[in-house]
Amino acid sequence: MDGTQIMKEDDKKEKTEEEVVHLRREIGLLPAACFIIGTVVGSGIFIAPKGVLINSGSVGLSLLVWALCGVLSLFGALCYAELGTSFTKSGGHYTYLLETLGPLPAFLRLWVEFLFIRPAVASYVSLAFGRYVVEPFFAPCAAPTVLIKLVSILGLTFVVAVNCWSVTWASRTQITLTFVKMFALVLIIVPGVIALAKGKTENFQNGFEVDSLTLDRLPLAFYNGLYAYGGWFYLNFVTEEVINPNRNIPLAIICSMVTVTVCYVLVNVAYYTMMTPAELLLSDAVAVTFANRAFEGLASVIPFLVALSCLGALNGGFFGSPRMLFVGAREGHWPPIFSMIHIRRHTPLPAVLLLYPLVVVMLITGEIYQLINFASFARWFFIALATLGMLIHRYRFPLHPRPFKVPLVIAVTFTVVCFFIVGLSLYSDPWNTGRSCALTLTGVPVYYVTVYRFRLPHRWRRIFNYCSMHLQILLEVTQQEVQTY
User: Are the C-beta atoms of 125 and 42 separated by less than 8 Å?
Assistant: First the structure.
């Protein structure tokens, strides 16, 4: 009888542990690699070639920019592999700045992420999704802008719903869409390589003409290329949900970034094999123009695959970014409601939902190429700060455990190049860079109001707590019941 009673108590204890509210470790090596590839390979490779070519001035230089952007992104990803294994909290940039440089830079990164970086990037990808879905039905005429934006909002809504519903479903969606987008890249690469092997090389003649190259436009070429590689840091946002992170984070980052770099360079070679530079510059949807040249019978398939690719990138962004807000709220740098998760779904519901209206507003009002330049300054400035913080932390705490350690030359090279590109952009695009810088600095007073909110008038705090309590009840969310780091 005593034995039976003990078994019942054990069963009850096991059931209770299963029902504990927390973010679970459910991301293995394959989902982690798919998460990175699926987030990196989005709209960028199908739209950014135009921006890279405009600002680099020649075919050869644009291919060189694509290769260098891949190498630079791999260097950055390796730095983040060290940071991700040294600091086991989720939150990515925010966590690393908090641990190495202090709370103010960390809060400013959190502020710009949700004020304009994430809304700008998500609206860019959403607009690309809408364009590739709608334009084939109106070719050769221009598709209605209103319809493109409406379809973009529908795709965005689907992604938000999946990420609110289940971590498992978001992960499975990402894996499926990653395989779809890799198939799309292969479908572009193969006919391009075949045509190149048959001697179709006229577009590569005099590929390194530098007459139209100007130093002030070169950073914008790199911004467009680096945007297409953007996403290698998203796995660091969900460190607490990765199984065996010390092994799987570095492996997933290295495998995925090498794969993406090789594919991107080959895709651009395929573009230039089938299209002249002038034709590429005239196209707003490069992959559609390529498909019309390479596949007469399958031309309608490419836009569909590209649209799914954009959806995968959007899903990866919405899976990762809310974790930064979640961790920031947990550290006291954001209202506590955003550090809560759904009691049954185990998803950071408030953090995901906050992004939705911000993205919709920017999607309706924004212009696609301005969005890239506008967001890139703040994004790369804080990435450079994070890797600089890593170097400072190495110097100050040499005995801190680092399961993965990137070579010093790679870390220094990446940090210096990032600061150089960011500094040069102040000269090449002072308007967007200045706006980005000004919006970043608006976070300074917000930081002091947020962190020192206990000094606010009692009535304001009571209203704030009342709203938070009712939101918590409405959304059915609560704080994590166990520590996951």
Answer: yes
CB atoms near residue 394 (< 10 Å): 18
| pLDDT at 414 > cutoff 80 | yes
Residue 259, number of CB atoms within 10 A of its CB: 17
pLDDT, residue 367, reads 60
Q: Tell me 190's DSSP state.
A: H
Question: Cα separation of 175 and 312, whole Å?
Answer: 9
**Per-residue model confidence (pLDDT) at position 4:** 45
Q: Give per-residue pLDDT as tens, 133-169.
A: 887 787 777 788 889 889 999 999 999 998 888 878 8
- Domains (range + CATH), the chain: 25-479 (1.20.1740.10)
Token pair in block for residue 480: 């994590």
Amino acid at 322: P
Separation of alpha carbons 63 and 262, rounded Å: 12
C-alpha span between 450 and 444 (Å, rounded):
10
pLDDT digits (tens, 9 = 90+) for 27-49: 788 888 888 888 888 767 777 78
What is the rounded CA–CA span in Å between residue 466 and residue 473? 11
What is the arithmetic mean of pLDDT over 355-372? Answer: 75
Position 483, amino acid: Q
DSSP secondary structure string for all residues of 326-387 = HHHHHTTSS-GGGGEEETTT-S-HHHHHHHHHHHHHHHHH--HHHHHHHHHHHHHHHHHHHH
Percent of the chain surpassing pLDDT 90: 11
Cross-strand partners of 479: 340
Whether cis (ω within 30° of 0) applies to the bond prior to 277 is no
